[in-house]
Amino acid sequence: MSLRNLPSVDALLLQSSALLASYGRPLTLQALRKTLEMARTHVRNGGEVPSTEVLLSWTASQLAQWTKPTLEPVINATGVILHTNLGRAPLSKSAIAAMLAASSGYSNLEFDLTTGKRGSRLIHAEALLKQLTGSEAAVVVNNCASAVLLVLSALAKGKRVIIARSQLVEIGGGFRIPDVMKQSGAKLLEIGTTNKTRLSDYEEALSANHFSATAFSPVSKSILMRAHRSNFRILGFTEEPSLREVADLAHQYQTILIDDLGSGTLIDVTRYGLAHEPTVQESLAAGADVVMFSGDKLLGGPQAGIILGRADLLSKIKKHPLARAVRADKTRLAALSATLLHYLKDEAEREIPIWQMIAQSPESLRARAEAWKTHLGCGEVVPSESTVGGGSLPGETLKTFVLSLAVQSASSVLERLRKYTPPVIARVENNRVLLDPRTVLPEQESTLLAALSATLGSTQRS
Ligand SMILES: *Cc1c(COP(=O)(O)O)cnc(C)c1O
User: What residues does 163 pair with on adjacent strands?
Assistant: First the structure.
């Protein structure tokens, strides 16, 4: 009945200068029309005509909702260092600066500054990778999954790939080694049993119909592959030959061994009390001809797939058409180089966030949790465990201290923390909310405490 008391779009537009400045004319107009539509429905349903002020505030929240980024920073208080769902490795300060520098303007991405001619993007991280690992060459691609696909496509298409049954893994997100093999045109040849594979299993598979009969020089029809069991463990009665034995056998049969390391650490993690995780250098030294690993797992860099190994094989890989499809962009090449430089300068533990997190002592974690408790005036500091996560070091934990909050409903506190800006992701155990300082970056602490105060202020606590 009082619909005609609603202002027109034009009348509202005259009062929307702040919104126009922030969001531009077309989007503001769209939001105003939507607001008026809502207002008409409201009035038809017996409501009062909203004031202009109310109408403009509806418009503002609509605009804020439409333009809010879906990808936003969160505070990780779960204690899982390489949390795949939370974006894996946070980058070092210089890696971030390098990305910014590479993307703010032009760069010599594929331009040779000496000759003034076209260059190759592949050179950018290559020298550092060679120097750090002793590899003959290096290729950087989108991620380790694409590295595996590319390597198999370039080196194993139409061949048999011999792999132990215990290594036919699914990495997560549906990335299954047998499926990738099919995609690449390679034929899977499983050997051994779930728990035991012997060198003789490899040898039998190799000696059966190995060389093509017509060739003058023998051409191998099979290659060997090792996939690291990066997200599970086999316990009990198990057996597997060493990587060196498998590599030697491959070479004896004039073929190659490719090694999907996944997490690919450059640092020996046993110095932090963790179980041994094969390093990239060890794999190359054991004789693997091609090694693949992720940039954003234990390397602590940007998402990337790194391929190392024999120069002749890598040159085939570089020339394969898929290499272009899975190539790395300039920002990640910049961040990767900056990350690798930390290793070269022996400052990884000081500069790379994931190593800072792994290296934190339980005492310093306890002190941080105690400070949180004092600040909030509630909770308990209790011993707990952090994990490395992200498809590395399965079952391995690091001793930590967490702030444990007894709340009426842990799930509703968790939800409220998720809805905070920035969202805080915590963990629940026995209906207690646990916050692990290990994965909370020092510069996020005050924000975390503000989030907790706001959240707990509106719920029951003890
Ligand atoms: C994690 C992992 C991959 C996939 O790496 P992304 O970089 O996530 O693509 C492949 N293989 C192994 C063994 C892994 O652990």
Answer: 190
Q: If you measure from the C-alpha of residue 293 to the centroid of ligand 1, how many angstroms do you get, rounded to a whole number?
A: 7
Please state the three-class secondary structure of the chain as a single string: CCHHHCCCHHHHHHCCHHHHHHHCHHHHHHHHHHHHHHHHHHHHCCCCCCCHHHHHHHHHHHHHHHHCCCCCCCEECCCECCCHHHCCCCCCHHHHHHHHHHHHCCCCCCECCCCCCECCCCHHHHHHHHHHHCCCEEEEECCHHHHHHHHHHHHHCCCEEEEEHHHCCECCCCCEHHHHHHHHCCEEEEECCCCECCHHHHHHHHHCCCECCCCCCCCECEEEEEECCCCCCCCCCCECCCHHHHHHHHHHCCCCEEEEEECCECCCHHHHCCCCCCEHHHHHHCCCCEEEEECCCCCCCCCCEEEEECHHHHHHHHHCHHHHHCECCHHHHHHHHHHHHHHHCCCHHHHCHHHHHHHCCHHHHHHHHHHHHHHHCCCEEEEEEEECCCCCCCCCEEEEEEEEEEECCHHHHHHHHHHCCCCEECEEECCEEEECHHHCCHHHHHHHHHHHHHHHHCCCEC
Nearest to 229 by CA among 83, 387, 392, 389: 392
Residues having CB within 6 Å of any atom of ligand 1:
143-145, 148, 171, 175, 227-228, 230, 260, 262-263, 294, 305, 391
Beta bridge partners of 164: 191
Dihedral angle sign, alpha carbons of residues 317, 318, 324, 330:
positive
Give me Rg for the CA atoms of the chain: 28
pTM of the entire structure? 0.93
Q: Determine the Cα–Cα distance for residues 16 and 36; give it in Å rounded to an integer.
A: 14
Q: pLDDT tens digits for 327-375?
A: 999 999 999 999 999 999 999 999 999 999 999 999 999 999 999 999 9
For residue 175, the CA-to-ligand 1 centroid distance in Å is 8
β-pairing, 397-406 vs 432-435, is antiparallel
Q: Are 124 and 98 in contact (CB under 8 A)?
A: no
- Ligand 1: centre distance to CA 69 (Å): 28
What is the C-alpha separation between 307 and 149, in angstroms, rounded?
Answer: 11
Q: In degrees rounded to 5, what are phi and psi of residue 163? A: -145, 145
The residue whose CA is least distant from atom 12 of ligand 1 is: 262
Tens of pLDDT along 176-205?
888 999 999 999 999 999 899 999 999 999
